[in-house]
Amino acid sequence: MGTAAGIILWKTSVKAHALFGIDGNESIQKPEDVKWEDVRKDIVTLIESNSDYDDGSYGPLLVRLAWHQCGTYCQYYKDGGSDGATMRFKPECSDDANNGLDIARSLMEGIRKKHPEASYTDLWTYAGGVAIEEMGGPEISWRPGRTDSKSGDTYPPVGRLPDGARGEDHIRAVFYRLGFGDEEIVALIGGGHALGRCHNERSGFHGPWTFAPTTFSNEFFRLLLEEKWNGNPQFEDSTGELVMLPTDIALIQTPDFKKFVVKFAKDEAYFFQVFSKAWTELMELGTNIK
């Protein structure tokens, strides 16, 4: 599983990214001591450790944790984003958008205890990238250097994460606030929904988006175009086994989005390229990483 090379730590060393605490954040105590290859091995073991969880893997859950950690960024107010790991505290940990992520945070606590020199937010974002690679996705570029907040006081306003029950205007508002264009929007939604499944008790929706919810691929886009989707409030295929949310259907109802759905459905390599770049940018929003 995964790529041979693993996550690229770019050209800079871990030591080069030691940051000092600013704006209420705590610095990483000993960043030079973080052995990221050892961290990776522990994450891979974690991903494969429980066949009883959804579809036999924690991978999609770790991707969602990383996404939600970074998806609160606002380019206009310059707050939220990857730094802080404020989901450890209220009110963010109890935000409805983060339902179920207490499982992921608890799992990552075990990794943190083994590698206390690393920040929570570095570990969470790194785990998301490792999970993508291990589930057959593209090689992910990633750099350490994020800092943990001492409390939840710096938590950004509620409502910044995508709501699957909404449509085109909501999608644009969320992703334009993050700084992404239409092609990146489609890649990030499709990449996120290539994995895992919805849970009724968490989001009000239920079911997987694809037939292989622990494999990262362009299947989401192919199914979106090829299947007939019916239903309300969630859309289901003819078998009733797969689900698409209103935000997903908006990708084929909006011409400026649909052209990228078509392109990604035809060319998985290109989808991987666009997604990998957008994911790396998402993971660094709101940080001082240079």
From TrEMBL:
<dbReference type="GO" id="GO:0005759">
    <property type="term" value="C:mitochondrial matrix"/>
</dbReference>
<dbReference type="InterPro" id="IPR019794">
    <property type="entry name" value="Peroxidases_AS"/>
</dbReference>
<keyword id="KW-0560">Oxidoreductase</keyword>
<keyword id="KW-0809">Transit peptide</keyword>
<dbReference type="GO" id="GO:0034599">
    <property type="term" value="P:cellular response to oxidative stress"/>
</dbReference>
<keyword id="KW-0496">Mitochondrion</keyword>
<feature type="region of interest" description="Disordered">
    <location>
        <begin position="137"/>
        <end position="163"/>
    </location>
</feature>
<keyword id="KW-0408">Iron</keyword>
<dbReference type="GO" id="GO:0004130">
    <property type="term" value="F:cytochrome-c peroxidase activity"/>
</dbReference>
<dbReference type="GO" id="GO:0020037">
    <property type="term" value="F:heme binding"/>
</dbReference>
<dbReference type="GO" id="GO:0042744">
    <property type="term" value="P:hydrogen peroxide catabolic process"/>
</dbReference>
<keyword id="KW-0575">Peroxidase</keyword>
<dbReference type="GO" id="GO:0046872">
    <property type="term" value="F:metal ion binding"/>
</dbReference>
<dbReference type="InterPro" id="IPR002207">
    <property type="entry name" value="Peroxidase_I"/>
</dbReference>
<dbReference type="InterPro" id="IPR010255">
    <property type="entry name" value="Haem_peroxidase_sf"/>
</dbReference>
<dbReference type="Pfam" id="PF00141">
    <property type="entry name" value="peroxidase"/>
</dbReference>
<dbReference type="GO" id="GO:0000302">
    <property type="term" value="P:response to reactive oxygen species"/>
</dbReference>
<comment type="function">
    <text>Destroys radicals which are normally produced within the cells and which are toxic to biological systems.</text>
</comment>
<protein>
    <recommendedName>
        <fullName>Cytochrome c peroxidase, mitochondrial</fullName>
        <ecNumber>1.11.1.5</ecNumber>
    </recommendedName>
</protein>
<dbReference type="InterPro" id="IPR002016">
    <property type="entry name" value="Haem_peroxidase"/>
</dbReference>
<dbReference type="InterPro" id="IPR044831">
    <property type="entry name" value="Ccp1-like"/>
</dbReference>
<keyword id="KW-0349">Heme</keyword>
<dbReference type="GO" id="GO:0005758">
    <property type="term" value="C:mitochondrial intermembrane space"/>
</dbReference>
<comment type="similarity">
    <text>Belongs to the peroxidase family. Cytochrome c peroxidase subfamily.</text>
</comment>
<feature type="domain" description="Plant heme peroxidase family profile">
    <location>
        <begin position="41"/>
        <end position="290"/>
    </location>
</feature>
<keyword id="KW-0479">Metal-binding</keyword>
